[in-house]
Design brief:
Blueprint (H helix, E strand, L loop, with lengths): L7 E4 L3 H12 L4 E4 L15 E3 L13 E4 L6 H9 L3 E4 L4 H8 L2 H6 L3 E4 L7 H10 L4 E10 L4 H11 L2 E6 L2 E6 L5 E5 L4 E7 L4 H8 L5 E7 L2 H6 L14 E12 L2 E12 H18 L6 E4 L7 H10 L5 E2 L6
Parallel strand pairs: 1-2, 1-4, 2-3, 4-5, 5-6, 6-15, 7-12
Antiparallel strand pairs: 7-13, 8-9, 8-12, 10-11, 11-12, 13-14, 14-16
Helix pairs in contact: 1-9, 5-10, 9-10
């Protein structure tokens, strides 16, 4: 069985994982899925070319082309387990501490001669792909600013809640800076029907991932949309259980730099359910890992050029995700 025909493994069948499995099957591949909650398999019931595994022992380098981790953070322990089995691993974590731990597995992945893709979701993930796409229009890129609206599944909602109460990390003129989450309000515009939202600094993983992909950028920041209530309750337990999938999500990526000697700003965005975006990105990455030859090994972030980022953007769009661009108000 070759990598291009072997099944792709999916661990975790929540809002994101179930969509990853369906996206992979729709592209003609088989999947092996597992969730610690046996009842979660109902989300893939009736799915063709889908095998439900009773434990992670079913996943090995002889049975899978790659494994996509869609479990709540932390994912570093599971990632280590599969790296040691000689498997390519795609992670979807958006927790900053977990992302740092995953990036620290770079040498371990190199020792096993495999790939570990860190942050293959909506934000981080699609944010890096859009930044890479926009960067092709510049001679030099010096600023990348990301904003996110909405949440995916319950784990994503909890992470969003914690992020507003944490310390926001940003890359500013060659050094890392920390600012209180919930500060730095900016009114930013997302694709319709979301429109304008007040966005604030938050403890997000995007700056860490984007700095790795774009080391020459001098300023990188990330914000999330929030209401006054969100900010006031960020340091308290969530007042009500998170929705199973959240509502409409939004992603906005702004890149600044120079072109032909002029200062230029390019903006792209998405308005779609977060879990759908994350599932499309993760499935596209897993498919590319298993079907394309590449010399890249170790920890990879989307946008760093070690995978075919342009092809990944195209694959995500072909899976039904619409990308919008700001083209100005005209004359």
């Amino acid at each position: 069985m070759t990598a291009s025909t072997a099944p792709i493994g999916v661990i975790g069948l929540g809002a994101v994982g179930s969509r990853v499995a369906r996206q992979i099957v729709q592209s003609g591949r088989s999947v092996i899925v597992h969730d610690s909650d046996p009842g979660a398999a109902i989300s893939v019931r009736g799915l063709e070319r889908c095998t439900v595994a009773g434990s992670i022992d079913a996943f090995s380098d002889t049975s899978c082309a790659a494994v996509v981790l869609c479990t709540p953070a932390p994912q570093d322990t599971l990632a280590t387990t599969f790296l040691d089995r000689g498997l390519d691993v795609v992670t979807t974590s958006d927790d900053p501490d977990d992302v740092r731990e995953l990036l620290a597995l770079d040498q371990r992945a190199r020792d096993e001669n495999v790939r570990l893709v860190v942050g293959a979701a909506a934000s981080p993930g699609m944010s890096g792909l859009l930044a890479a796409e926009l960067s092709l229009r510049f001679d030099t890129v010096d600023e990348i600013h990301v904003a996110f609206h909405g949440t995916g599944g319950p784990a994503c909602a909890r992470q969003h809640h914690r992020a507003l109460g944490g310390e926001a990390l940003g890359w500013h003129d060659g050094e890392w800076i920390e600012r209180p989450g919930g500060s730095g309000r900016e009114l930013l515009w997302f694709p319709e029907p979301i429109g304008g939202k007040d966005c604030y600094r938050a403890e997000l993983a995007d700056p860490v991932v984007l700095h790795r992909a774009f080391p020459h950028a001098t300023r990188i920041s990330a914000r999330v949309s929030a209401t006054r209530r969100d900010r006031l309750t960020a340091r308290l337990p969530m007042m009500s259980p998170p929705h199973a999938e959240g509502g409409l999500g939004g992603l906005r990526v702004e890149v600044r730099g120079s072109r032909d000697g002029h200062r230029v700003t390019e903006v792209a965005g998405i308005a779609e359910r977060t879990a759908i975006v994350a599932g499309s990105v993760a499935a596209s990455v897993a498919d590319q890992l298993s079907t394309r030859d590449t010399s890249a090994i170790g920890a990879i972030t989307l946008g760093d050029g070690r995978l075919d980022d342009v092809a990944l953007v195209t694959a995500v769009i072909e899976r039904g995700i619409r990308v919008f661009e700001y083209v100005g108000a005209g004359d």
